[in-house]
């Protein structure tokens, strides 16, 4: 097997909240021991309910958040050990696309200035910068004329195109897209997804695609990881995950997708209760408090990841 582009081993991100000097600190286990490999050129989808830790995984991989524990190995190099300057240089290879580009595009800057910023930071000379910017704005489906405008002059879909252009300016290998189409109308969503697919082919990009929307993840991913309360409960090829889900949580998530086909025989499983707090996760299997197949062992013993029918699954049923 060739070396994966990215390998994550035992990644944890615990946030510490100190309410007062007298009270003990509260640890929010947003990411609590994740293992992943991402092959060059593939799209790995990450799904799960709001608050399960998807964005924290993405941000920790890029070290926008410092990991509490674990290794992030990119092209064979452990980037969790790089110092600030080394990480800044490394960042040209790993970029992020966010849900709401409005929040990340400076309203006082023109699009040209916004796209120039990463090039200046990585010391690209002015002549080359101009050519790169004018090429990239057209690659994402806008025009050179748009470069002198300000972010508020664009629609949501166009702003996301600008966000994507900015992420691609330094020709990265890995893009982490965190809910990149969730704020957009459905018709615009498919345009942006198609753009991401085209760019992937053109630039041989690798994607980690984070979304709570299973339909979107099914459309774009090669493999899918399902997260629950800071952990991956199931990881497999897209076809396998959507047609033969194994973990009771995956089954529940899939059963919530509206059935458009009358022959669709999926039963609807209603998930009761809210996602427990990551500051006080349930003992044993974190899903046991909501699991329709809960057994005694699930309440006390945390399940290990196993390969079952080609899927990686963490559940005592297997
Ligand atoms: N900076 C922070 N400080 C403290 N807690 C945080 C911080 N960022 C996230 N959390 C907590 O960590 C947990 C995971 O949050 P995260 O944003 O990663 O979830 P998510 O799966 O991306 O959710 P969503 O689908 O709503 O975007 C949540 O309980 C959240 O409240
Ligand atoms: Mg999020």
UniProtKB/TrEMBL annotation:
<dbReference type="InterPro" id="IPR017871">
    <property type="entry name" value="ABC_transporter-like_CS"/>
</dbReference>
<feature type="domain" description="ABC transporter">
    <location>
        <begin position="16"/>
        <end position="254"/>
    </location>
</feature>
<dbReference type="Pfam" id="PF08352">
    <property type="entry name" value="oligo_HPY"/>
</dbReference>
<dbReference type="InterPro" id="IPR003439">
    <property type="entry name" value="ABC_transporter-like_ATP-bd"/>
</dbReference>
<dbReference type="InterPro" id="IPR013563">
    <property type="entry name" value="Oligopep_ABC_C"/>
</dbReference>
<protein>
    <submittedName>
        <fullName>ABC transporter ATP-binding protein</fullName>
    </submittedName>
</protein>
<dbReference type="InterPro" id="IPR027417">
    <property type="entry name" value="P-loop_NTPase"/>
</dbReference>
<keyword id="KW-0813">Transport</keyword>
<dbReference type="InterPro" id="IPR003593">
    <property type="entry name" value="AAA+_ATPase"/>
</dbReference>
<keyword id="KW-0067">ATP-binding</keyword>
<keyword id="KW-0547">Nucleotide-binding</keyword>
<dbReference type="GO" id="GO:0005524">
    <property type="term" value="F:ATP binding"/>
</dbReference>
<comment type="similarity">
    <text>Belongs to the ABC transporter superfamily.</text>
</comment>
<dbReference type="InterPro" id="IPR050319">
    <property type="entry name" value="ABC_transp_ATP-bind"/>
</dbReference>
<dbReference type="Pfam" id="PF00005">
    <property type="entry name" value="ABC_tran"/>
</dbReference>
């Amino acid at each position: 097997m060739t070396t994966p582009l990215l390998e994550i081993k035992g990644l944890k991100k615990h946030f510490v909240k100190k309410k007062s000097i007298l009270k003990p600190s509260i640890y929010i286990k947003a990411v609590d021991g994740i293992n992943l490999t991402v092959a060059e050129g593939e799209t790995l989808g990450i799904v799960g309910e709001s608050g399960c830790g998807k964005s924290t995984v993405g941000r920790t991989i890029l070290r926008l958040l410092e990991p509490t524990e674990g290794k992030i190995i990119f092209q064979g190099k452990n980037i969790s050990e790089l110092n600030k300057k080394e990480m800044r240089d490394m960042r040209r290879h790993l970029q992020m696309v966010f849900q709401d580009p409005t929040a990340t595009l400076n309203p006082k800057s023109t699009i040209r200035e916004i796209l120039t910023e990463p090039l200046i930071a990585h010391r690209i000379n002015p002549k080359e910068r101009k050519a790169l910017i004018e090429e990239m704005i057209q690659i994402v489906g806008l025009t050179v004329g748009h470069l002198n405008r300000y972010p508020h002059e664009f629609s949501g879909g166009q702003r996301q195109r600008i966000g994507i252009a900015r992420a691609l300016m330094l020709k990265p290998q890995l893009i982490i897209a965190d809910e990149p189409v969730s704020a957009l109308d459905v018709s615009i969503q498919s345009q942006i997804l198609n753009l991401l697919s085209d760019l992937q082919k053109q630039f041989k990009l690798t994607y980690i695609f984070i979304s709570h929307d299973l339909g979107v993840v099914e459309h774009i991913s090669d493999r899918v990881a399902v997260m629950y309360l800071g952990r991956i409960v199931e990881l497999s090829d897209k076809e396998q995950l959507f047609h033969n889900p194994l973990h009771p949580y995956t089954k529940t998530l899939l059963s919530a997708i509206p059935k458009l086909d009358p022959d669709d025989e999926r039963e609807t499983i209603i998930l009761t209760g809210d996602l427990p707090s990551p500051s006080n996760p349930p003992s044993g299997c974190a899903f046991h408090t909501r699991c329709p197949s809960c057994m005694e062992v699930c309440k006390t013993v945390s399940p290990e990841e196993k390969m079952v029918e080609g899927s990686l699954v963490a559940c005592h049923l297997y």
